[in-house]
Fold this protein.
Amino acid sequence: TLPIRLADYRAPAWRVERVELDFELGIDATEVAAKLLLRRDPAQDEPLRLEGEQLELLSIALDGQPLPATAWRLIEGGLEVDGARDGSVLETRVRVHPAANTALEGLYLSGPRESGFLLTQCEAQGFRHITWFPDRPDVQSTYTVTLRADRARFPVLLAGGNPDGAGELEGGRHWARFVDPHPKPSYLFALVAGRLEKIERDYRTADGRNVQLKIWAEADAIDRCHYAMDALERSMRWDEQAYGRNYDLDVFHVVATHDFNMGAMENKGLNIFNAKCLLADPDSSTDDEYRRVEAVIAHEYFHNWSGNRVTCRDWFQLSLKEGFTVFREQSFSADMNSAPLKRIEDVSLLRRAQFPEDAGPLAHPVRPAEYREINNFYTATVYEKGAELVRMLAGKLGAAGFRRGTDLYFARNDGRAATIEDFLDALGEANGIDLTPYLAWYGQAGTPRLRAHGEYDAARREYALTLSQHTPPGAGQPHKQALPIPVKLALFGADGRLLPLHLDGQTSTGGTEAVVVLDRIEQRYVFRDVATRPVPSLLRGYSAPVILECDYAPDELALLLTHDPDGFNRWEAGQQLAVRACDALRDGTPPQAVAAWCDALAALFDDAGLDADLLADLLTPPGEIELAERESVVDPTRIHMLRQQLLQHLAVRIGIDKLDARYRALAAQSTAALDAASQANRRLKQRVLQLLALLDPARACSHATVQYRHAPSMTDRLGALTVLARHDTARSAEPLAHYRAHYANDPLALDKWFALQAQLPGEGALARVQALEADPAFTLKNPNRARALLGTFASGNPTGFHRVDGAGYRLYAERLLALDALNPQIAARLATAFNGWQRLEPRRREAAHASLTALAAHDKLSRNLAEIVGNMLK
Ligand code: B3K
Ligand code: ZN
């Protein structure tokens, strides 16, 4: 297939003003009747073409007359119809097969055929699996949807929009109708039908609309929806206050399914969630999962404005809704929880997921220039880097200015399919600022390197900071341009105190924090009246998504780690210092950084004023994937060992007695409570137990055994199990078996059991994964299960996956092939685990190359998997 290019965009020649859909629902076969009111662009002379895939056409009529076979024809991926005029009404009737749909795109069955329910997933191009339609986001229509089905088998019938009648039909059947008055693109269409329970709550919007909030799940899960309901209400209030956005229908439905390709979907008025991102209760969800539920509920809800009311002109603009919505979700979570911790979490994710993407063969700009399969572009770059770009804009405009900008953006583009330019225009215009220089960030792939070099002139009491930028070539862009990089900074004196800033050429001086924007290759900034040689704290709060290269001495980083009041930058200094410590261990150079890192953390360990959760994060050095990003030749085993060595040094430095005492103290306070302090306690307790296990595995495992047995929460239970499984295989067998039996009927808890074992490091992982594949609960058909075992193995277990003999790659490639036949989206997503293979040391690189080449040679690969594997080998 040929790539689709942004440069080739053309407005639709035909639009659909109104859609009426009629569903005769059945598990094996569903019939869909569609009636489209067509509008023609008088400036274009294109025939009417509609997209459709795997549809069995039953009938077709134009303006009330059945169409003769000569007046329509099937073309590649679609249907062409002669004789349509502006105002024509096209009626089609098709049959689709939900139970046979294993790709989980379009209309499909969730769960067993006897008891499962029907649902849809349309973004990006699933609607064409339901009916013939101009399936593109710039075609917006009002929808009237009528569902008909057997009442006993499908007691609940839902579609997006407001309810507009329901009733009985002959033969035990019934019907329900929904009208959505807000014109929407087809990707936001949704329906759900089956046996579901609900919880509800009334909500009154700030602008006075009464809304019924309803969360639906299968009977065994409905009791676990209350937390999501609370989170939904918090999200709605927050969006009213932070962005002035009110909900706009009379009902808001949220539905949970165990069979879903991603986290959740923002269908208008009918959000559908992967159960993993919706269900929560203390017995089966970890603290991290609670926060994730809150964040995803907010994210999908926020899309009602950033995505639905203002949608994307074409899929190249995906980050217009995703980057912005991730940013909104991040701000919400920061407000609900701890802002510095949230920032740490987000930046860690960016480094772990987006940096490797941006540095490898899958690199693409936040606004890609071309794609073959759009589902492959729901990436960390579009989402997470996209959110960083919005954060830079928000920082530039300030809180009030950004709000002025988003108000204008929403007002001006309401009901439209917009572009990134529309976004920058509105933000800029509302503030009298030209933001077009930031457009370059959207078009250029690769992570910029920001170099910082400082010189202090004691005689003149001047500090000169030289900043320069460089983005390595890649993604078909040999010459990268300079980007505007906002650098938030502060200077510290040797005593750890902030110095007042007098920056040359800046009007507001004397404060202790400033932002400079580097918008050329290199620039020098001179600070006057600097009493002593300062230590700069740069990119505070991570003010731009770049890699900072600064020649700090270890004691300078230690100073920031100890004194920076900005929680994020304090953590960041610790991360940089840990990286330097790893380098020293690797190169056998004098271990000053090791000592500096360990000493600073040992002191912070005793600091009663430090929050437990920040301490837990400070005690965690960068992960193996992040460390690997810095190497030109990657040996995953070596990186694993270096990181373990570093942790060992830290544990020794803190000392066994202190670790043990702290663990006991934290364990004594253990409850199931979900407040911030209790969560922080659990987080620190787990870190401490892990460190203790490095010094005295027997003692740590005794603690873990007791903790597992009496755990009041899933966080404690899983934490204990992880320590046992890592440090005492024999002793972990019984609790692992206990967990397996105890949660036999809880798919989400079982996923964690699979993932925990898939993550155990070392060469034994492969055999373990194979044994787990034989577990009767394992199946490739369920995305969560496949991700839990295979995805975790390949992406979360570097020493296990990257075996020198290549057996990890071979097994994985075989599974990708099997998966591709069932669910191309999941196969393609999991295949990205091979990213970075070119930088592996020669033996592993050879082996990975062989597995990828073998995969690529298959002639029946889906477009999804073929694009990923093809790009990987480019
Ligand atoms: N918009 C959906 C993602 C759809 C993915 C399609 N392959 C969820 C979200 O980002 O909110
Ligand atoms: Zn989204």
Remarks:
- The two ends are 16 Å apart (CA to CA).
- The CA atoms of residues 33 and 499 lie 71 Å apart.
- Residues 656-672+686-742 form one domain.
